[in-house]
Design brief:
8 helices; Glucose Oxidase, domain 1; globular; two-stranded antiparallel ribbon
Amino acid sequence: MKAFNILLLAVLGASCSSPKNNSGEDAIQYKNIEKHIAELSSDRYKGRMPLSATEGITVDYIAGQMKEIGLEPANNGSFFQEVPLLAVNSKISNTLDFDTPQGQLKFPKMTDYVTFSRKMEAEQSLDQSELVFAGFGITSPEYGRDDFQGMDLKGKTILVFVNDPGYGTNDPYFKGNTMTYYGRWTYKFEEAARRGAKGCLIIHETGPAGYPWKVVDNNGETTKLYLKPENGYQDHCAFEGWISQTAAEQLFSACGMNFQDAKKIAVQKDFKPIALPVKVSGWMKSTFETKTSKNVCGLIRGSKRPDEVVV
């Protein structure tokens, strides 16, 4: 058996001596892991972001350590594999505006909302987009759930809760407090796009999300990296993002709903989407750049099954 060890996996878990001289758990020692963490987290690497000025010294370090512990180059004699990436830099409107039955709510960027998009269009906008409360934004035949119920979402923006309907309940619905892929923000954006929505806003709650709002804030108008697309990501939503719990509470209140009551409704197995009496507006301006990054890959060649690969 031979195995490809991609990116940091081989380095962070490996001993500094040859793997032939160690076996099993004896080869994994804290001092060896600590060495690599200390090196790669040092100021010299400035965060190690792909496509940045320090990517070169980062991948060279990893490849050097792979070679030192006896791994073979895994990509036709090279430790490196080229990865075409799309770098997206966006500026978003200072506020995301919601016209409600009780007047306009203007939520400031970073404080109460963050949006982004990989869709390759220089300028995008939500211009009085209809807002639909779509529960948890889940379509799951195995759980008998469809939060969209056939509603036409073209040009509309959906508002959804993060995580699964079973989180924080005593009901083993879905997997309770164990998040399934349906609870991930990536899934919710993907499903919104499949349903034809123009935008998808996820309500942030620290417990269900697993991290505080500061994490969302820190990733606001930062460079986003995606695999280089063939179709310019035209099959994705124009707006993907988050609103704070505080903003969501105000929004539901303006629609005559209580936040906790909305959550209880969304948890129900027979939930149906609710067209809110709200229109949402905002804009985004983006620049795009395609560059080539690198994976680092090495292999340990097996003797019994040399034609098989474990990644």
